[in-house]
Amino acid sequence: NVAKQMAPYSRDLTGPDATSQNREQDPLELTRQDQIYLHTAFELHHYWKSRMRALWLSKNFESDYEELNERINQVVTVSESLRDSVSLMNVLGLILDIGNYMNDANKQ
Predict the structure, then answer these.
(1) Distance CA 4, CA 42 (A)
(2) How far apart are CA 64 and CA 48, in angstroms?
(3) Percentage with pLDDT > 70 across the chain
(4) Model pTM?
(5) Cβ distance 21 to 11 under 8 Å?
(6) Distance CA 33, CA 106 (A)
(7) DSSP category for residue 22
């Protein structure tokens, strides 16, 4: 496993004592390619995770926004049609009249 092999050569760059923290082994013992990997990928894994999230957001933002905007417009259209519906008002009025009649019948 690469992570286990690189662990002694690395240091945690996220903590408060990141600059004073010593490595278990000297990275100069590694080949040039391994040193590059150690410094750019392994020690900066916290950076790459947030960087990938930011890239994903910038790539998908417009399509996600358009999809959400379309759904919101559908909700607005349906709510306006329900608000302006005469037949729905008639049905709700009928339900209200029936409820009022039933309440009046119980009082007698």
Answers:
(1) 11
(2) 23
(3) 88
(4) 0.49
(5) yes
(6) 89
(7) P
Question: Can you read off the two tokens belonging to residue 78?
Answer: 């349906």
4-34 b/e (C-beta count within 10 Å ≥ 16 → b): eebeebbbeeeeeeeeeeeeeeebeebeeeb
71, amino acid identity? R
Match 């590694």 to its residue by tokens. Answer: 30
Query: Phi/psi of residue 11, each to 5°?
Result: -140, 155
CA 83, CA 1: separation in Å to the nearest integer? 63
Residue identified by tokens 């905007």 is 69
d(CA 35, CA 40): 8
Q: What number of CA atoms fall less than 13 Å from residue 60's CA on the CB side?
A: 9
Q: Tokens representing 7?
A: 């662990």
Each residue of 8-42: pLDDT tens digit?
888 776 666 666 667 777 888 888 888 888 888 88
